[in-house]
Amino acid sequence: MGSISDQSVYLLSRDGAETERLNNQHRFLVEISGNILHPSIPAKNITAVADLGTGTGIWLEDIANCLPNKSVYLHGFDISPAQYPSGSEIHRPGRNPIPLSVHDALHPFPVEHHARYDLVHIRLLTAGLKYADYATVLANARDLLKPNGYLQWEEVDHTAFCTDSIPENPAITKLRQSVIEAMLKLGLWPFAPQHVHHQLAAGGFRDIRRATYTTIDREGMRAISQKWVAGVMRALVPASMVVTGEARDERQAKEVVERN
Ligand SMILES: C[S@@+](CC[C@H](N)C(=O)[O-])C[C@H]1O[C@@H](n2cnc3c(N)ncnc32)[C@H](O)[C@@H]1O
Question: Which InterPro entries does this entry report, sorted A to Z (predicted)?
Answer without folding.
Answer: Methyltransf_25, SAM-dependent_MTases_sf
